[in-house]
């Protein structure tokens, strides 16, 4: 069944068929969410919320764009809203990361790889620096780079999701890359 056939079936009284859309797009939505919230549990919760929101809004889906594009828009907006609504949680999470109180499962996985502890610390610091730099980008730049790098979407697909032109997406992407380079090189100079 195509996405449109599944949607028609759901709207005609077969809500169980929605699971086919969830199964097909769950990883895509999760990757988008993790790109914004940087936390697996939050991304899992947000992914569930997005599919609930999409299900409730399904009668309003006009089919003017692909279902995946429509779902990406919901995912991006929900992710940005989550970030806006929970700045305190983000700050607390960063404090936990700074103080070393990490998820035990994540620590166990890292230790079990046999990687040198110094290299693990360096890699962790690099990942955190990138996350902080990404979080500091303006929303439209962050969206463009997340959809490009986390979801590996084309500029055309990103333009549809962001409701803009491919040229604007390219400009946003280039500015985002420059801003990330500047933020990361500034961080290295200050250390």
Characterization of the model:
This protein has 191 residues and is mostly helical. It folds into 2 domains: 1-86, RNA polymerase sigma factor, region 2, helix turn helix motif (Rna Polymerase Sigma Factor, Chain: A), CATH 1.10.1740; 102-191, Arc Repressor Mutant, subunit A (Orthogonal Bundle), CATH 1.10.10.10. 79% of the residues lie in helices and 0% in strands. The protein is built from 10 helices and no strands. It has helices at residues 3-11, 18-37, 40-57, 67-85, 87-99, 104-112, 117-135, 139-149, 155-162, 166-190. The termini are far apart. The model is unreliable at 97-112 (pLDDT under 50).
Topology:
Layout: H1 3-11, H2 18-37, H3 40-57, H4 67-85, H5 87-99, H6 104-112, H7 117-135, H8 139-149, H9 155-162, H10 166-190
As a whole number of angstroms, the C-alpha radius of gyration is 19 Å
Major sheet characteristics: none
CATH superfamily of the largest domain: Winged helix-like DNA-binding domain superfamily/Winged helix DNA-binding domain
Show unreliable segments: 97-112
Give me the CATH fold name of the largest domain. Arc Repressor Mutant, subunit A
* Inertia-based shape: globular
Name the average pLDDT.
Answer: 83
Number of helices: 10
Gap between N and C termini? 55 Å
């Amino acid at each position: 069944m195509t996405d449109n056939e599944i949607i028609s079936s759901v709207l005609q009284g077969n809500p169980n068929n929605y699971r086919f859309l969830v199964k097909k797009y769950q990883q895509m939505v999760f990757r988008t969410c993790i790109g914004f919230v940087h936390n697996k549990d939050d991304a899992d919760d947000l992914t569930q919320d997005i599919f609930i929101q999409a299900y409730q809004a399904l009668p309003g889906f006009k089919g003017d764009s692909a279902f995946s594009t429509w779902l990406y828009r919901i995912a991006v907006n929900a992710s940005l809203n989550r970030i806006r609504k929970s700045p305190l949680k983000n700050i607390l999470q960063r404090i936990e990361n700074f103080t070393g109180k990490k998820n035990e499962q994540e620590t166990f996985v890292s230790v079990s790889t046999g990687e040198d502890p110094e290299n693990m610390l360096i890699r962790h610091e690099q990942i955190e620096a990138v996350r902080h730099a990404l979080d500091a980008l303006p929303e439209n730049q962050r969206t463009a780079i997340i959809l490009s790098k986390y979801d590996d979407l084309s500029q055309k697909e990103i333009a549809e999701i962001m409701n803009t032109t491919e040229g604007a997406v390219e400009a946003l992407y280039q500015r985002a890359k420059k801003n990330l380079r500047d933020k990361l090189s500034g961080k290295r100079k200050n250390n």
